[in-house]
Amino acid sequence: MNYTKLFRSTGLALATVLGLTVSGQAEVYKWITFKPQGAGDAQAVTTQWLVDEFAKRTGGKHEIEVFWGGSVAKTREIPDALAAGVGDFGDIITPYFPDAMPMNNAVGFFIPQPMGTLEVGQFLEKLHETYPQFKDELASQNLYAFGFRPLESYGLLCTKPVNTVKDLEGLRIRSYGFAYPKLIEALGATPVSIATSEAYEALQRSIIDCTPIGPALARGWKYDEVAKYYIDIPLGASFGHLLAMNLDSYNGMDDETKAIVDQLGKDYLVEYARVLDEDRARVGELWKGDLGVEVIEFPQDELLAVIDDAGIQAVRQEWIDKANAAGLPADEIVSNLKF
């Protein structure tokens, strides 16, 4: 189904039926999200924090109503739904849209990379402030990014212990996105494409031996019930989500409200990183206790030794070529993504 056509042709009608905001003059803006309200993780908790802060900082003049759990648009429908005006705010899982958002997927081409959650978010903020190509890419789709939600720093959660790169040889590791398939191959393992929702069963049934993930997400998906070894291999934080707005909704705001939204995006990143750190620490204590997950330090030098692999470099060069074609100083940008 062509969701772009569907949303653009029915967006106004659907917005009217649901009572959704289609004008920046409205007092109540609508946030459409795939996150369940009761998820209790850092993403859901800080989304509510942002909504509460928006009402507080506008002195109650404006509010945001959240439509949780894909009730208005599913995960892969959100960009088109936002663009069509079905909602005003939403969170977009950026790696799901590599063709529509190649510049904004920069970090996904560079794994491993040395930055953590907060650093990746600040890196994306700087890119948007410095190079118009990043905003223009989204503006062409009637979208505006006012904030960023990177994922946590990743390691590998495995069903067997892994102490060195030799232990990875022949293992089957869940793979997705741009860089992971080639990195997994360079480490001597076999990449297996499996959806996040299917990874629990895949680990349980030994279809895969490991999956890239961070502790907080591993607990959230309960993968740590069936995989008891967390390999602390320094993959860096993956870039996850854009906090986005319908561009028309943003442009329709008065200057004061725009400034509040933009500052909230920056403050959100700091709050989200703080809550995520607390969540990781909590999970670490659970792992030491009844969950019984063993954390194994992986030698960083063994990981870095494979970065020059031809496959890994080809993936990185793919983004560099796209960035150069867009008129960006690619070498300057990617210097932040290298050890």
UniProtKB/TrEMBL annotation:
One of its GO terms (biological process) is transmembrane transport. Pfam families: DctP (PF03480). The keyword Signal applies. The keyword Amino-acid biosynthesis does not apply. Residues 1-26 form the signal peptide. InterPro entries: DctP_fam, TRAP_DctP_sf. It comes from the Bacteria. Belongs to the bacterial solute-binding protein 7 family. This is C4-dicarboxylate TRAP transporter substrate-binding protein. It comes from Flavimaribacter sediminis.
